[in-house]
Design a protein that fits this description.
The protein is of the alpha+beta class and 280 residues long. It folds into two domains: 1-88 and 115-153, no CATH class; 154-280, Transferase(Phosphotransferase), domain 1 (Orthogonal Bundle), CATH 1.10.510.10. Helices cover 22% and strands 26% of the residues. It is globular, with a radius of gyration of 20 Å. This is Protein kinase domain-containing protein. InterPro entries: Kinase-like_dom_sf (IPR011009), Pkinase_fungal (IPR040976), Prot_kinase_dom (IPR000719).
Amino acid sequence: MLELDARLCSNEVFVCSEGSLFTFRYKEQDRTVRLGRVLFRPQHGTAGKNMMIIRVKCACLDCHGEHSNCDWQGKRLVLKIGLSGENRVSEYKFLDRCRKIAIGEHEWVLNHLPEIHCSFDIPFREYRSRIDTKKRFQRGFEMRVMRGSIQEELEPLSSLTTARECAQVFYDIVQCHHWLWKYPRILHRNISQANIMVREQDGKKYGVLNDWDLAIWLSNTGSGRPSKLLTGTAPYMAHEQQSGFWKGPHRYRHDLESVFYVILLLTCLYSSLNQRNPTP
């Protein structure tokens, strides 16, 4: 299994170059992808929002030749990788639970969920300083891993061209969010403009609720772990959550308020979804 040197500072971890190869475990074998354009690079020190998004193509030998049988051939893929608490539930596990429920009359929701092809963790080697820190702070210190996944590449809201498409996407997001709360019992906890994406399929555009790094099972909303209190992205966080007196837990209504703020800011700051109004 791959390991990372815990002495690397966080900004060194995210250094990469276009054309580099990245190998990880997939279906009990090594799978290699070639890195392309970096779509998102985290800001140093931004707690809870430190995932890097890189466009990738599968570089395995099966992807070449007429008789290719690579299960990723022709798919638009991204590598999402960054630091995560080692006990935090991965996006893949949340979505796996959703897909097991999304059958029959619930199958419609699959159009509004991201497709994650695989997920993997790369642990840090244990150095004495980290072990001592964990002992000192006990529950106040959370061990970290480098968590990665290969996902379908989706389109941003700026890809929409009409008001009708925009209205449909936000309707999709609200319906999907309610389904998550009612059936698999999940709260997303980080709805923002960047996390509402678009999937175009068979000539139709669907709203997709993306980025589940801060999601939580409803049964765990009372947890006091520091990382589980990281919810939302300013300025989309609910008003109550931005108070210094707020101690949780995160509620269903907080996510709905975030959807409202996304719509509000798009309406006030943009003349169209891909053209921002000039600053006064």
